[in-house]
């Protein structure tokens, strides 16, 4: 029997979320035009075989705060992808861009906790795109987090893992980064005893 690991990606428009999803799946499933406008209109689901006995199910979502003006509509937006991961996701993946962290991103985690409950952080991984910026500045991810301010440090302290990826690096580097991310995903999955998120927790 093949085991599913179900992952939902959240992130603002323009952070490279869909391209990251394509790199994780190792094929072009999600639309990506390399622009600052939202390309993902609806929730979109893709799959990747990880082994003979394990499969990754990845759901891409429209950019956060796009065209949503009420709390009710935002709740609907956040709950909709859960339907594509029945009976529930194992991982929530929050995608940020190096150098583009704002108060809005910080508030997003609190927003997700208000919708899903505080235990959502037990299933949360943060992926930073734009690792090439760190490489240029001769910094690693931990150095960046420590110099980025208390808000980012607080956000990172709540998650179960973090990693930086250069979506547009050479194929070999992208593959290595994705492999590290997949190991992190399976690690959190095992840490949670393979339980998926449920609002009844």
CATH architecture descriptor text: 3-Layer(aba) Sandwich
CATH class: Alpha Beta
* Low-confidence runs: none
Average pLDDT taken over every residue:
85
InterPro entries: G_AIG1 (IPR006703), GIMA/IAN/Toc (IPR045058), P-loop_NTPase (IPR027417)
Organism: Lottia gigantea
Keywords: GTP-binding, Nucleotide-binding
Protein name: AIG1-type G domain-containing protein
Task: Give a verbal description of the structure.
This protein is 37% helix and 20% strand. By secondary structure, it is an alpha/beta fold. The protein has a single domain (3-191), classed as P-loop containing nucleotide triphosphate hydrolases (Rossmann fold), CATH 3.40.50. The chain has a six-stranded mixed sheet, with helices on one face. Strand 4 (91-97), helix 3 and strand 5 form a beta-alpha-beta unit.
Explain briefly what this protein structure is.
Residues 2-201 form the AIG1-type G domain. This protein has a single domain (3-191), classed as Rossmann fold (3-Layer(aba) Sandwich), CATH 3.40.50. The protein is built from seven helices and six strands; from the N terminus they run βαββαβαβαααβα.
